[in-house]
Every structure is written in structure tokens, then in C-alpha cells.
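In the laboratory, one determines a bound structure by crystallizing the protein with its ligand and collecting diffraction data. In a computational setting the workflow is compressed into a single prediction: the sequence and the ligand go in, and a structural description comes out. We illustrate the idea with PMV.
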Amino acid sequence: MQIVVAVFIEAAMKIKVSAPGKLLLLGDHAVVYGYPCIVTAVDKRLYVEAEIINDSENKIIAPQVKESRFVLESIATFKEKFKIKASVKITTRGDFSHNVGLGSSSAVTVATFKALSLLFDSDISEREIFDLSYEVNLKIQGVGSGFDLAAANYGKTLYFIKGGKVIEPLHNEELPLVVGYSGVKADTPFYVRKVAEAFKSKLNKMDSIFKQIKDLVEKAKIAIEQKDLTSLGREMTQNHYLLQQLGVSIPKLDAMVEAAIKAGAYGAKLSGAGGGDCMIALVSPKKTSAVKKAIAHVGGEIIEVNNNADGVRVEN
Ligand code: PMV
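The predicted complex, in C-alpha cell form:
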């Protein structure tokens, strides 16, 4: 009987949650300067299991070193805020590698806060989880708009302004996207700084590019809500050309984008900071196979992923 009770308590003390990865649909880089972007959550998820342990130290089991920094900082922030003394063990597992740029750090941060809030039964709102996660993100990376944390936290497809000034869910269904991985790991802080340097020396030119990106984001928002894929694709492609002008694309991403468009995509662009990671193409079902082949033909790796996915949630 005693054993049964012990097993029950042990089971009750383990919390498992998951948060989704993301793809930036439009507005990359401009969002760092206060302009809006559109992000969608994807069904490749990051899982976090949390339990209280009888130890003086917290224990992190994270397969990727990069993630454990985010987990450690999230635990420290949470324990400080809620004056918690107990140690915890956090175990993480991802449906995807941090190399592809789908946002493993943001997903693990949001998932850690969610798991800890359930483990310690803390009174914490959805918004506070976003705010605390953003605090951790800035502490570690020093730069960033927080769009990826919003996707991990709220899920679905969001119109977003830096720091969560605006987080507006768009009422859409899944978008028919094809995702191609360039094979190159992007260094996001490097590219954010590169754009910041250019911004200092060519303020007018850069600001004009950001404003053009903003206009595309606003048009794309309407196109998404009206299910107008032709316009949305056109806006995505124009956004790619503006990102080229910002100096963040690379020949491999350009080749994948051009290949997708030539094979009949409504539009295509790099997604994220540039310098590598993924590109996305908006494609009608009839053209999907041709677009995938065209991207693979120029060396891209197709990543099978659905978008408009759920935000952070409890897993059984
Ligand atoms: O490289 P990613 O997928 O983390 O995207 C970075 C997007 C930027 O706009 C360049 C930076 C940001 O935090 O918004």
C-alpha cells in the first residue's frame, strides 16, 4: 500500500509540457526596429519534463548545450520571482534539432516556465510567461524581438510587435507552406548586429526598407485573413528581395527561393535572420511536389512540418 502511495506522489510531481517551434512568415529584422511581423507556430515541438528533487542543485538533462543555458536561466528567474528554494530536475527533448532554426531556445524557455508554474502551482498568467521568457531571452542573447517566444507561448499565427506590444492572433487555417532547410546554421545575433551596423551608417536607406517591409506585412495580414494566397505569395517574395537588400540572404537561400518560384510557388522567402536556416514557399497543393523537387534540386532539404500549431500545452 505504501509503495502504491509513493508511486502516486512521484507521478503527480512530474509535469510534462510542450511548446511549438516557429516560422517567421514576414517582417524579419524590421520587427527588431518596432515594425510588425507575422509568425506561425509549427508542429515540431520541444518537450520539457519537470520534477522537484531532493538535492541542493538543479539538474538539467538537455541534449543540446545551447538549450541548457535557457533552461538554467528560466529556473533561476522563476525561483527568484516566486521565492522558491526547492531544486528541480528538467529534462528536455525536441522533435527537431536546434540547427534548423525552428526556435528550440524560445520553445524550451516558454515550456520551462509553463512546467515550473504547474509544478509549483504558481499563479502566473499566459502574458507573464511571455514576459518572463522575453526577459530570459534578452539576458542571454542581448537582442531579439520576442516573436519566437510569442509563437511558442500562444501558438497559431500571430501579428506581432516587439516585446509583445501587440500580439494579435490571425483567424486563419493552416497555410500551404513548403519548408526548405539550407543546410547552414544561421547565427541570428550576428545578423541582427550586422543589420544594426548598417542601420547606423545608412539610416535613411535602412529605414526606407523597413517601412516597405511593414507595408508588406500589413498587406499580408489582410491577405491571410481573406485567404488570398496569390497576394500573400507576392508579398512574401517582395519581402525576400528587401531582405536581400538588407544584406542578410546568402546564395543558397536565394537559389532555393528562385527555384520554388520558378516551379510555380505563389511566393517564397528566407525565414528568420538569414545567413542560413530555412526558406519557406507558399504553394498550391497541385504544385507542392514540383516545388519540393525544385528546392531539393538546388541542394535544399525539405522539412515536413505543419503550421498554425497549438501554443504551449500540457502533455499526458
Ligand atoms: O533567426 P531566427 O529564426 O531566430 O529569426 C530572427 C528574426 C529577427 O527578426 C532577425 C530577430 C528577431 O528577434 O526578431
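The first helix runs from residue 2 to 12. Keep in mind that any predicted model is a hypothesis to be tested, not a measurement.
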